[in-house]
Amino acid sequence: MPFTPARTLVTGASSGIGAAFARALAARGSDLVLVARREDRLHALADELRSRYGVVAEVVPADLSRSGIGPELRERTGPVDMLVNNAGFATHGPLAEGDAARLEEEIDLDVRALVSLTRAYLPDQIAAGRGAVVNIASTASFQPIPGMAVYGAAKAFVRSFTEAVWHEARPHGVKVLSLSPGSTRTEFFDVVGTTAAAVGRFHTPEDVVETGMRALDARRTPPGVVSGRANAMTAAMTRFLPRRMLIGLSGRLVSA
Ligand code: NAP
After folding, report:
1. What is residue 256's predicted lDDT score, i.e. its pLDDT?
2. Residue among 76, 174, 74 at smallest CA distance from 128
3. Ligand 1 mean position to 125 CA, how many Å?
């Protein structure tokens, strides 16, 4: 059965995977609440969604790395049937040389905002007895990554957190899913500042969204899904490698 929420909030909708999610959901008839910092991009997407799909598309410009963002946004938007926690970015380079403020911002956005938004919107869905939360993790979540220590740990948090909440929400009829893309052709690597962090074949944002929507369409939505067959196999293999070998290998793969 196609999962068809009436109203979906997508964070990081101004580009990449977030914009692709917004288009896919509008195509299913969902109204959209589009959140990111670049307001002009959000308005352009909202206009496109209204004219192509006839849905209601609201633009809510916000910097999600601020403390207290979940309750603040929930107050502004009201409840939504589906939440896509997609906004995120990565940093690259040895921790001891990293920009300390930027590393904190990475945790604020990739971890704190995601928890704050999930906490803020989930109770409405539980009360309604239906809904969905999709949290974008990464194949980076499956092993520690020397050279991207904060990003790997942040995404491991996202996956662990999401799987636990999947279990809590399931008896209430709410689907909670962690979606782990591998290298995807978006603005992500422009923000990182290097493609050294890219591992494996590049996929499109549409491929990633299709994997996520297929998992939501399933009657028994799993706690997590990896996008791309090769990515899923590599992620599964990390369980069997000795830890030293795994860490060394992942560090070599992303080093410039
Ligand atoms: P992207 O094209 O760079 O998109 C990132 C989105 O996050 C943008 O819409 C950006 O919008 C938003 N954002 C960044 N900082 C924000 C802030 N402080 N407040 C609000 N919004 C903010 O990258 P993407 O690949 O689509 O990334 C989407 C998600 O996929 C991320 O969580 C990323 O970690 C994950 N991921 C990506 C890849 C990949 O290879 N691309 C692989 C695995 C996982 P504004 O700049 O307008 O605010």
Report:
1. 59
2. 174
3. 25
